[in-house]
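Changelog note: in this version the structure field was regenerated for every chain. One regenerated record is shown below for reference.
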Amino acid sequence: MHEEKSIPTIFDIAREAGVSRGTVDRVIHNRGRFSEDTASKVHSAIKKLGYSVNPNAAVLASRKKYSIACLIPDFKKGEYWELIQQGLRAGAAGARQYNVDVKIFPYDQTDIESFRRCCASILSEKPSGILMNAVFRDEVTKFSKVLDGARIPYAFIDNKVDGLGNFLYIGIDPYKSGQLGAFLLTARKAVESILLIRIIRDKGNQGDPNETRRRGFLDYFAKELPACTIHTVFINPNDTGSITAELESFFREHPHVRHIATTNSRIHLIAPYLEQHPDPERIVVGFDDTEKNLAALKAGQVEYLVTHRIHEQARLSIEMFADFLIRKIEPARRNHYVHLDILHRMNLDDYS
């Protein structure tokens, strides 16, 4: 019979760190005077013993208010970022009881100036922290330097720029997701050539949130199938007529290509063409379980979707950010990778 492990108390933390209970309290709530060495000992003891502060009690006692600004792309109904926003709002509803206010700042991901304006607007409101993604990687890097200088904590959701000062990233491992997509595309039979569908984004071609995933996808081919030819076609998501024309032109020239993938969340854009030109030998792989992608999967135009629980990822990001602001303790893992899921027609009904 195993002895039940007791829940550690603030006195246990004090004993482990070799300091007084009052010192532990000051470090946890970041008030009063204490040295960096003392803070390090206390935080080490907290991690070792698994101590958890009650954020509700701490906030109610201090009455301090916090704000999280969410800098995310704007969207049309049914698109990927609508699911992210729904999750953020769910997280915001839970964080409200801890005096944490969440405000969403949407920007046009085809317009770099829109992103810059949102950044300026956020800074004018002096938030406690910022949650963002990385469509415009160079601009995000510049913005992060401003946040570092202003000592405003920030975290990434869904994608990131490595080497910056964010305290947290919540999302998939984009490189591994790209590799998984390439594996699913080529696992069933020998492949001589594939078609990679890419999206035309902003006019200056500076927005590229899927760069890391695409790199993982292409690296898989370089290592496992170096002789495979990779064709690339760019499509305009705002002009469905041109998409059909682009694909018809490509397949007239390359009729034997039967493996198609995209590393963005819009595989559904080519579903009308695939429906009009059925081919039982074709294999199509996409990413993310948006409503339109799921419809294409169910109808048979798409073979696999590599995805994750998008709504849950966004809700968790607010919870973890709020916990960081309240407790002043960095997460145990800087990169909080969520699980990847593989959807097929055979398991679609069981996924929710």
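Spot check on this record: The first strand starts at residue 66 and ends at 73. The radius of gyration is 24 Å.
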